[in-house]
Design a protein that fits this description.
Layout: E1 2-7, E2 10-13, E3 18-26, E4 31-39, E5 46-54, E6 60-63, E7 71-76, E8 81-86, E9 95-102, E10 124-125, E11 129-134
Parallel strand pairs: 2-11
Antiparallel strand pairs: 1-3, 3-8, 4-5, 4-9, 5-6, 7-8, 9-10, 9-11
Length: 135
């Protein structure tokens, strides 16, 4: 089992920044895809960003068009933690943000496929952290 715990959410004004963290514990695997999704009230959960790697390979990342150029996904292996740096925040970024993980990947390029833009690709989820952007 893998446990994921998000933190770093909060209230910020439009144009501001936040950094979300997702700490992973439990089993560790050689290959991983991890992602961030968000869900606003009354809306479906949507893809934000994903990152994948295998062993010591470089990491590969992909972003939703709505956040490209503003958000950056990264990981710190030593801390077993994934991050989402969010800059130039907009009111429409307001949502509960969830991190997710899948250890069944066989390629470091997994994040570059359409599969990992779907929530169904991931088998571990965190509890979510609220991000509210005021106008």
């Amino acid at each position: 089992q893998v446990q994921l715990v998000e933190s770093g959410g909060g209230l910020v004004q439009a144009g501001g920044s936040l950094r979300l963290s997702c700490a992973a514990s439990g089993r560790t695997f050689r290959s991983y895809a991890m992602g961030w999704f968000r869900q606003a009230p009354g809306k479906e959960r949507e893809f934000v960003a994903t990152i994948s790697w295998s062993g010591a390979s470089p990491v590969y990342a992909a972003y939703a068009d709505s956040v490209k150029g503003r958000f950056t996904i990264s990981r710190d292996n030593a801390k077993n933690t994934m991050y989402l740096q969010m800059n130039s925040l907009k009111p429409e970024d307001t949502a509960v943000y969830y991190c997710a993980a899948d250890e069944r990947v066989s390629s470091p390029f997994a994040s570059l496929t359409s599969t990992y833009r779907m929530s169904t690709a991931y088998n571990y989820w965190g509890q979510g952290t609220q991000v509210t952007v005021s106008s």
